[in-house]
């Protein structure tokens, strides 16, 4: 399955582990099935690897429609039931403006300006600061 | 008064979630070529994504036709989503935020209407649905939202 020229294949999302936080970086087009798969992958990764937090970096995402917005909300909800926190990081201004006009304000969702800040929020909360590679104290 | 001219840009099938990605990609390209600003582009692509998904999920699949418009002062894009599905019995209710016949959030249709400049629905229960939206590139005189 590929999206052909011009469309990143949109079928697989890598999930990285940084300390005890899962870092998920979304890029370009994401097919619906890949978004649903991601939801399951994250839940599995939280229990398999005892993650305490999930950062979804959406800085490379040009469009969030009601489907993808709902996926974010559901990831956050299931993550919470598994005793972890989700932070959506780096939303583009045009996407934020559009979501509000669409009527999707995602009230329960924690957000951060970028992935760095999201990691800081989560590691501060769980006290695992030193386990995150490459982060600076008091940056 | 200047006649609005139109040039057919594309006609794309809507049969799978991969087709939804193609529709977004096409609208993104067309909107950029026409000269839409980033926010306008994002709004139109998002509206197109909502309507294409409705065509797929509720209409059982269909197609979208895109036409580049020029009214002499501004350029715009018209998108027409057509399906031969069950139609919408109560359009006002379908447009209401929060109304869904399935497991959705019920934001797609009403939200898409807010994201574009012109919006119309032509539907007949048992025969299908056709939703048409138009967006003009910034600087164009925006038609006032009329009382319905
Ligand atoms: N093309 C269509 N054919 C038949 N019914 C439709 C069509 N588009 C919309 N509808 C009806 O209008 C309702 C509202 O649509 P809307 O897009 O607002 O919400 P949704 O698709 O149910 O959920 P969401 O888009 O938020 O995920 C739908 O639940 C459906 O009953
Ligand atoms: Mg919908």
Automatic annotation (TrEMBL), chain A:
Coiled-coil zones: none
PROSITE patterns reported for this sequence: STAS
InterPro entries: Bact_StressResp_Reg (IPR051932), STAS_dom (IPR002645), STAS_dom_sf (IPR036513)
All copies of domain STAS, residue ranges: 11-122
Family matches, as Gene3D superfamilies: STAS domain
Classification via CDD domains: STAS_RsbR_RsbS_like
Domain of life of the native organism: Bacteria
Pfam families per UniProt: STAS
PANTHER family to which the protein is assigned, alphabetical: RSBT ANTAGONIST PROTEIN RSBS, RSBT ANTAGONIST PROTEIN RSBS-RELATED
Protein name: STAS domain-containing protein
TrEMBL record, chain B:
Domain of life the protein comes from: Bacteria
Name of the protein this chain belongs to: Anti-sigma regulatory factor
Stored Pfam families: HATPase_c
Residues covered by the Histidine kinase/HSP90-like ATPase domain: 39-139
The organism of origin for this protein: Streptomyces glomeratus
InterPro entries per record: HATPase_C_sf, HATPase_dom
């Amino acid at each position: 399955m590929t999206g052909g020229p011009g469309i990143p294949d949109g079928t697989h999302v890598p999930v990285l582990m940084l300390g005890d936080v899962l870092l998920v970086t979304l890029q370009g087009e994401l097919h619906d099935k890949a978004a649903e798969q991601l939801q399951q992958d994250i839940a599995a990764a939280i229990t398999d690897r005892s993650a305490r937090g999930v950062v979804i970096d959406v800085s490379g995402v040009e469009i969030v429609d009601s489907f993808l917005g709902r996926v974010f909300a559901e990831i956050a909800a299931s993550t919470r039931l598994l005793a972890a926190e989700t932070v959506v990081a780096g939303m583009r201004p045009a996407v934020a403006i559009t979501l509000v006009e669409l009527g999707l304000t995602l009230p329960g969702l924690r957000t951060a300006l970028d992935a760095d800040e999201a990691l800081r929020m989560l590691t501060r909360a769980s006290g695992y600061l030193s386990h995150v590679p490459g982060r600076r104290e008091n940056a | 008064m200047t006649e609005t001219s139109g040039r057919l840009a594309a006609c794309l099938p809507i049969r799978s979630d991969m087709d939804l990605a193609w529709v977004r990609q096409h609208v993104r390209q067309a909107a950029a070529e026409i000269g839409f600003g980033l926010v306008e582009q994002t709004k139109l692509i998002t509206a197109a994504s909502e309507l294409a998904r409705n065509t797929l999920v509720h209409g059982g699949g269909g197609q979208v036709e895109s036409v580049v418009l020029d009214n002499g002062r501004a350029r715009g894009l018209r998108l027409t989503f057509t399906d031969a599905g069950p139609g919408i019995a109560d359009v006002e209710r379908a447009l209401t935020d929060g109304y869904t016949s399935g497991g959705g959030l019920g934001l797609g249709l009403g939200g898409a209407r807010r994201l574009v400049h012109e919006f119309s629905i032509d539907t007949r229960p048992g025969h299908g649905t056709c939703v048409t939206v138009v967006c003009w590139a910034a600087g164009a005189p925006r038609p006032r939202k009329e009382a319905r």
